[in-house]
Design goal:
- The complex is a heterodimer.
- Chain A is of the alpha/beta class.
- Chain A has helices at about 15-25, 55-75, 95-110, 130-145, 165-170, 230-235, 280-290, 295-305; strands spanning about 5-10, 30-35, 80-90, 115, 120-130, 150, 155-160, 180-190, 200-205, 210-215, 215-225, 245-255, 260-265, 270.
- Chain A has eight helices and 14 strands.
- Chain A has an eight-stranded mixed sheet. A six-stranded mixed sheet of chain A has the order 6-2-1-7-14-13.
- The model of chain A has no long low-confidence stretch (mean pLDDT about 95).
- Chain B is elongated, with a radius of gyration of 33 Å.
- By secondary structure, chain B is an alpha/beta fold.
- In chain B, helix 10 (about 490-495) runs antiparallel to helix 11.
- Classes of the chains: A alpha/beta, B alpha/beta.
Chain lengths: ~325, ~625
């Protein structure tokens, strides 16, 4: 059986970038295990550098990571894969409205442009990563970076990193998962819809995220199993009845405290709860794993370790409907 | 108007049209043009017989009019109906639905500008009537017919629905294998057995929705469309298979037609796609069709096959008939000929250079057959990629597959699978199904792929249906999630062969689009109202263990917005150094939560508002 220092398990863009950075920048003998999803599959996340979070330490890490990721993608040969978009966050409940007010001011503190809209906030020039061109270059880049890449199989590795939720579902039994990790049923749907007021619109209290797509279509990502259609339709501009073009269902993890969970868990190293920001954090997580992270980054990761006291990192956590 | 594409009534191999009554000529109007035909024609077959084979413009290209892509047409007395299911009748006055260009409306074209496909208007109609049966059989090919017969014999009531105007499916195209009886004999016998009490057969009837045990069917009766609900305890899907379109530049131009369509048009209606034709086939059945068309009077310019030296009795017969064959070549591109018809170029397999250039009125293309699992997926069934096809995966309670939809190939296996599936649906032991084929030494298997190299020219479509997905330019983003029409199974299969979709993802891609869910209705859903919590988790520990709530005032009328960060007046505006946050707005100023350490250091603060920094101080008690 082939031997590696680090095995990165996952089909997500984060897993591919993480494997490449670890092999290239940190000299590890790295293998990425996972077959990326075809571009024709319905997306399951937006790859957006806008966290649903209010803690400044996380914002600082993300802003730095965003810059690192732009450099990384330039070195891969896909600098244009990061674009800018406008995103709107809309609150229904008083707690969420208060959180978004704070989030907007935090974003301004980190040089974002925001404006108030009915029920929430609009964020301009938010970095959005188009995964498709990156995925198309990834295998070649991994090879050039010195990382092995296999679709599936077993290897011997000193450290196994479970870099996306499917990998965690597969490798960590429910009884071994920390209580903060909540499995959630998800639905991605492509609809024929009029354009919304912004390319990205998120309703935390309804569990709905919308992304405008070409050709008068809208991608909707909906959390939970109950009242999916009603919650989704309540966020859409019409016209109704609205035709669905494609739908897929899957699971993911949310954390009950709204904060990411990153670090050793049993024999593995797990990465989850990063939401849409996940691929941007690949360089930072690579430095953590390689032991070269800056002190303030180490502090942030330590606070989000599965074994850490999480009382001081709780963040925005809309009601989560746990999957059965 | 004449019928230039109609064969003589006594054409060989019954290619004069077995559905026609030549003693009953008729004429009707379509978009103001007179169309002649015969009793038994569909509107589409009569239009094609008249030589009209162009639907309209799609971007920079022109799309052919086919049984898989044609506009709806409406009369003054009824709603829009599909041309291929609409029986032609004398005196009809029809108008096609869609955007037409007046500059492009004559001769062989319907003159549409295709900027999107019109949604079928019956999708949201309420059923006019409901039929109830023990078993609903979808598909009137030999598998569906055998299933209906088996169920009726066992005493069950049956409703069989068939989209096309005829029963018997595609078995006639393939012919018998080995010592099988002829498909005509078998079909005629099976059809005759359906005339028993308790069995209802609906032709011209397309199932378009499945809701649990109830299916919605659009049916054409006496020239009028209606929706019929069929409530059945069990459903058998014998939906057959669909011939895929070989992928090459210009593969949807007028004059390009699939072999299966060419066969049915000739056999049922005596209609041919051109007086001269090139047949590009990757299987032996294409040779059989070419020979028959040749016998019926079509000038077959060449039979082109990507396989090198294929072995088949049909190949031998074609050679003996004097037809010219070209092996090891596949279509590279098609375009309009200089004077009339199509010019097609063919490349040696593995190369991208034209090795053979031919002209003819028609290019008949024969791709592989893909089981039609559209309704299977609509019912919640899965698919997976295996052997160059998407095949059914998993099971659905009270629903079964049979025939070529279930992956069977020979006629006898399709018939046996229909009977076997009925036995299983009603809790009886399954009958064994043996799918016999003539071995490779005698019949060379069909070519695995029909993907041409990329060349300049007209777009290369992935399939022949309404999705209109085009092969992307090299390096460009695949489009299966960007089009407002769901891709067909043929689109997904071609996408796999083009390397755009991983084989392991093909089933999931098909399922995501094959079962998208029903229409979404408007909703005013909102979460149950709540009140602002006294303890917000995202502020826990944020400003120390014991932050204090204080009133901040300002020497103006300025109001501090909730969420604004509060800094000591000597601190830079770095959110990591913030000492507090505005919890609620005041008039002026606001109420802030500030750390003990912050309060110990000063009573003067800076509040970073969206309009810029503002000095603030703690209000005196």
């Amino acid at each position: 059986m082939a031997e590696f220092e680090i095995a990165i398990v996952g089909t997500s863009l984060l897993s591919g970038l993480l494997a490449g950075v670890l092999a290239r920048d940190h000299g590890g003998k790295v293998v990425r295990i996972g077959r990326p999803l075809s571009a024709q599959r319905l997306p399951r996340s937006l790859n957006l550098a806008l966290p649903l979070a209010t803690r400044p330490e996380g914002w600082r890490l993300l802003r730095q990571a965003e810059a690192d990721t732009r450099t990384l993608l330039g070195s891969i040969g896909v600098p244009d894969s990061v674009g800018a978009t406008e995103a709107e966050l809309v609150a229904d409940l008083p707690d969420t409205a208060a959180a978004l007010d704070h989030l907007a001011h935090m974003a301004v503190g980190f040089r974002h442009q925001v404006r108030r809209i009915d029920g929430g906030w609009a964020f301009r020039h938010v970095a959005v990563l188009d995964a498709d061109p990156v995925e198309r270059r990834l295998r070649e880049w991994l090879l050039a970076a010195g990382a092995a890449s296999i679709d599936e199989g077993s290897v011997d590795a000193r450290l196994t990193v479970l870099a996306d939720d499917d990998a965690i579902f597969d490798a960590v039994a429910a009884s071994d998962r920390p209580a903060v990790l909540v499995p959630q049923s998800m639905t991605s749907t492509l609809l024929v819809s009029r354009p919304s007021s912004a390319p990205v619109r998120r309703y935390p209290d309804r569990g709905v995220t919308l992304l405008a797509r070409p050709g008068n279509t809208m991608l909707a990502i909906v959390g939970g199993e109950h009242e999916i259609d009603a919650r989704l339709a309540s966020t859409l501009p019409g016209p109704f009845p609205m035709k669905r073009l494609a739908t897929t269902r899957y699971r993911r993890f949310s954390t009950s405290d709204g904060a990411p969970l990153i670090g050793p868990l049993g024999p593995h190293f797990v990465i989850t709860g990063l939401g849409d920001t996940a691929p941007f954090l690949a360089p930072a997580i690579a430095r953590l794993i390689a032991g070269t992270a800056a002190e303030e980054d180490k502090r942030w990761f330590a606070a989000h370790d599965p074994a850490a006291d999480r009382s001081a990192i709780a963040d925005i956590s809309p009601a989560i409907e746990a999957a059965p | 108007m004449s019928q230039p594409r109609r064969l003589a009534a006594d054409a060989a191999h019954e290619f004069g049209g077995i559905a026609l009554d030549r003693s009953k000529p008729l004429s009707f109007r379509l978009d103001g043009r007179r169309i002649d035909g015969f009793a038994g024609d569909t509107v589409l077959s009569a239009v094609l017989a008249a030589g009209i084979d162009a639907y309209g413009r799609f971007g920079d290209t022109v799309l052919g009019l086919t049984d898989r892509l044609a506009p709806l047409a409406a009369s003054k007395r009824g709603g829009p109906l599909p041309l291929d299911r609409h029986p032609a009748s004398d005196g009809l006055d029809l108008a096609t639905v869609g955007h037409r260009s007046f500059s492009f409306r004559r001769g062989t074209a319907l003159g549409h500008v295709i900027d999107g496909i019109v949604e079928l208007p019956w999708l949201r109609l309420k059923p006019e009537t409901t039929l109830t049966a023990d078993l609903l059989v979808v598909g009137g090919g030999v598998a569906g017919l055998a299933a209906a017969d088996a169920a009726a014999k066992a005493g069950h009531s049956v409703v069989l629905v068939e989209r096309r105007p005829w029963l018997g499916g595609d078995a006639r195209y393939f012919g018998p294998v080995g010592d099988e009886a002829s498909p005509e004999t078998v079909s005629t016998d099976l059809i005759a057995r359906l005339g028993v009490p308790g069995t209802t057969v609906l032709t011209h009837a397309e199932l378009f929705a499945l809701h649990g045990a109830t299916a919605h069917v659009h049916r054409i009766v006496d020239g009028r469309g209606m929706v019929v609900a069929v409530s059945a305890d069990r459903i058998l899907l014998a939906t057959g298979s669909v011939q895929r379109l070989p992928v090459f530049a210009g593969n949807r131009l007028p004059g390009v037609t699939s072999a299966i369509s060419a066969y049915h048009l000739a056999k049922r209606y005596g209609v041919i796609p051109g007086r001269s034709a090139i047949v590009a086939t990757q299987s032996n059945y294409g040779y059989r069709l070419a020979m028959r068309l040749h016998d019926a009077g079509v000038d077959i310019r060449r039979i082109v096959d990507p396989r090198v030296n294929p072995q088949s009795r049909f190949v031998d017969f074609a050679k003996a008939s004097g037809l010219k064959l070209a092996g090891g070549q596949l279509p590279l591109a098609a375009g309009p000929a200089r004077r009339h018809g199509l010019a097609a170029s063919f490349a040696n397999t593995g190369t991208a250079l034209s090795a053979l250039d031919l002209e003819a009125e028609a290019l008949i293309v024969s791709g592989p057959f893909q089981p039609d699992l559209t309704l299977w997926m609509l019912a919640g069934g899965g698919t997976h990629w295996s052997g160059g096809k998407l095949l059914a995966r998993g099971g659905i309670e009270r629903i079964a597959l049979a025939g070529s939809a279930a992956g069977y190939r020979s006629m006898s296996a399709c018939i046996a699978s229909g009977r076997s599936a009925v036995a299983e649906l009603f809790g009886r032991p399954r009958e064994p199904v043996e799918d016999s084929e003539i071995g490779a030494p005698y019949e060379t298997p069909e070519a695995e792929t029909t993907i041409a190299p990329v060349v300049a020219g007209a777009p290369a479509f992935l399939d022949a249906g309404a999705s209109l997905l085009v092969r992307p330019a090299p390096g460009a983003r695949p489009m299966l999630t960007r089009h407002a029409q769901a891709p067909s199974l043929g689109d997904v299969a071609a996408s796999v062969e083009l390397g755009l979709t991983l084989p392991t993802d093909a089933g999931a891609v098909a399922e995501e689009r094959g079962a998208p869910g029903g229409d979404l209705a408007a909703s005013d859903w909102k979460p149950a109202p709540g009140t602002l919590s006294t303890s917000l988790p995202w502020l826990a520990g944020r400003f120390g263990d014991d932050p204090q709530t204080v009133r901040l005032v300002v020497d103006s009328t300025r109001v501090f917005a909730r969420g604004a960060l509060v800094y000591a007046n000597t601190s830079p505006a770095d959110p990591l150094l913030a000492t507090g946050v505005i919890e609620s707005e005041g008039a002026p100023g606001g109420t802030a939560l500030i750390s003990r350490a912050g309060l110990a250091g000063t009573d003067r603060f800076i509040v970073e508002t969206l309009d810029g920094p503002s000095p603030a101080r703690i209000a005196p008690n």
